[in-house]
Specification:
- This protein has a single domain, classed as Spore Coat Polysaccharide Biosynthesis Protein SpsA, Chain A (Alpha-Beta Complex), CATH 3.90.550.10.
- Strand 9 and strand 10 form a beta hairpin.
- With 216 residues, the chain is an alpha/beta fold.
- Helices cover 28% and strands 22% of the residues.
- The protein has a five-stranded mixed sheet with strand order 3-2-1-4-7.
- Helix 3 packs across helix 5.
């Protein structure tokens, strides 16, 4: 099993008790957990910060005016995900990092870490929320430098006057992220899939649709 000092976990998005209540589980796997949320989020997190393993990062909400010129899907709200992930990864200095959404929780990461360590140490491990060739943006696990380089590029490139063609179309955010990861990988990158059913107790709340998934 990958030592907890080799793994960072970035919880990105608006403060949500779904992920906050799962921090004790994440501490079993990582000694560097970053809650990358937004200024103005009003959930009291003091009880979750009683450990040196947990860092709270409150980001200023980015202006979407420039982003919308390139990427208008959902009024460019996916850029919030890109920015909060990028900001959280900036605080990761471990060999590996995992980014998860704040409206989700996974109690058992053993299978994810097994695949990373023994089968695909140079790839980005994914989960099967999306049953297509497209990766899922819900959870990404892999080399920290690759994740940092990719999300830093996306976060900053969208603020420029011109962006690569694949970013200027109304493409799903999953496609944009995966193509960027491939762009910055030093080898032929693959995205091994781990089944959500293998991740223990799972709770996912999609606030924009009202959908809830539980695996108990």
């Amino acid at each position: 099993m990958i030592d907890k000092n080799r793994l960072s976990i970035v919880i990105q998005g608006p403060l949500n008790k779904t992920s906050l209540n799962n921090i004790e589980n994440y501490k079993k796997y990582s000694s560097n957990i970053i809650i990358s949320c937004w200024e103005g989020d009003d959930i009291d997190v003091s009880s979750f910060l009683n450990s040196s393993a947990v860092t709270l990062l409150k980001n200023k909400i980015p202006d979407l005016e420039q982003v919308k010129k390139h990427y208008w899907d959902q009024s460019a709200n996916h850029y919030y995900q890109i920015w909060s992930t990028h900001s959280g990864l900036c605080l990761c200095n471990t060999e590996y990092s995992m980014k998860v959404r704040s409206d989700e929780a996974y109690s058992n990461l053993d299978e994810l870490l097994r695949v990373l360590e023994y089968e695909s140490p140079n790839d980005i491990i994914n989960i099967d929320w999306v049953h297509t060739a497209t990766i899922s943006d819900h959870l990404l696990l892999g080399n920290t430098k690759l994740l940092k380089d990719s999300f830093s590029f996306l976060a900053n490139e969208y603020l420029k006057k011109n962006v690569p063609e694949y970013m200027s179309q109304n493409s799903p955010v999953e496609d944009i992220i995966s193509e960027t990861l491939v762009k910055f990988s030093t080898h032929k990158l693959t995205f091994p899939i781990v089944k959500v059913a293998d991740l223990g107790k799972v709770l996912c709340v999609w606030n924009h649709t009202g959908r809830i998934y539980k695996n108990e």
